[in-house]
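Appendix B. Raw example, untouched.
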Amino acid sequence: SIEKGLEYMNKACEANSGVACYKLSVMYEKGQDAKKFKDKIIHSLEKACTLDYAEGCNSLGYRYGNAQGVRKSFKKAFEYYEKSAALGNATALLNLSILYGEGNGVTRSLTKASEFAEQSCLAGNAQGCYRIGLDYQKGGGGVLQSYAKAAEFYDKSCAKDDAKGCVNLAILYEQGKGVEQSLKRANELYAQACTDGDGLACNNLGLMYKEGRGIAKSPKIARAYFDKACTLKVGIGCSNLGRLYETGNGAVLLYPRAKALYEQACEMNVAAGCFNLGNLYLTAHGVAKSYKEAFKYLDRGCLLGDASACYSVAIMYSNGNGVRKSLFKTKEMFGRACDLGEEKGCERYAKMTNK
């Protein structure tokens, strides 16, 4: 029975078994009224940590960092993580990396953050591998930028079944950064991560099928992957799925479905979703043509960083469609489109500047 289990663990903890003290805290935590036993949970973890049981120290650190049963204190969280890490706990090493990266409970140090992430990885923590992989991919923090090193650590992360590591490794293979380009390998990794529930992987694999990159082109299969990505709350997947319904490519031409998907994506702050929704109102695809509604969504898409949306907004300011005509705003939006990589925006901005 639960009562006998608690009695046994309590006696073992009193006999100075660190693992028993930790397990006792877990049993209290899983009980029907964990709040009632919060003091006993903390006491058991404190004793486990005093007895040098690493997971007890790490759990205490987590509780202080997240105000679970104790008053929030990043300083105390750091102290307990530090002891746990010294005892060889890989998760504690990762938690130290996070605290150093954010400057919580300790002076911020990106160098230390990277060092502890790498130590966590080498101690067997998949998220530590992913985190140091990110550091190497981006550079400018605690390590020098290196796609090759990023690929190395993403590979370790992926090998430990961390879907995010598999996705980032797939992107490197797709782009040929740090590794020899292999669309076949990229697709294998996307498929693995998608199966593990990573929505971005599902979306990216959908794009590969849609475009026939490294795999037989199939808009129908692409639709299935976009649908899974959207179900997993990845907004760009919803937008891409909507595009198939709007064009009838791999799906039945269905404007209302496209509109609903674009709305979902735009609500999730996906720039392409807002742009596509705005275009529906410009082209009157399944909705009454409305410059006002078109401008609302295109402007939002522009603010979210979509170059084409900014270019469209510039044209609307130029023509006074859905918004008061303004040469100043026209030039500003052409400039923003240019900054985001829209060549036509650069050309129009240059023409207005040279007048």
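End of appendix B.
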